[in-house]
Specification:
about 80 residues, mainly beta
Length: about 80
């Protein structure tokens, strides 16, 4: 949901760089995947369409910290799940 944030600390060869990725609009979320030497943080819409993606080399990532939104979602941000019988 809007306000979700991920901090990624990366080794930059003698120093570190910190990147912050945030869900920018209502109803969007952040998905984190890792594999094949990459860490990806993707902002995804309610329908599952990726909007933005940040990619980092896994061997350079020092820390990855997830910060969930600090407030309750607004009614417009809540997506009801359909039940399949």
């Amino acid at each position: 949901m809007r306000g979700d944030r991920v901090e990624v600390v990366v080794d930059a060869g003698g120093s570190t760089k910190t990147y912050e990725i945030e869900a920018t609009r209502a109803g969007r979320r952040l998905d984190i995947t890792h594999g094949r030497g990459l860490v990806e943080v993707t902002e995804v819409t309610r329908g599952g369409t990726p909007v933005r993606t940040a990619r980092f080399m896994a061997n350079r990532v020092i820390a990855l910290v997830e910060h969930p939104a600090e407030r309750e979602p607004e009614p417009s941000e809540v997506v009801p799940l359909r039940r399949t019988a």
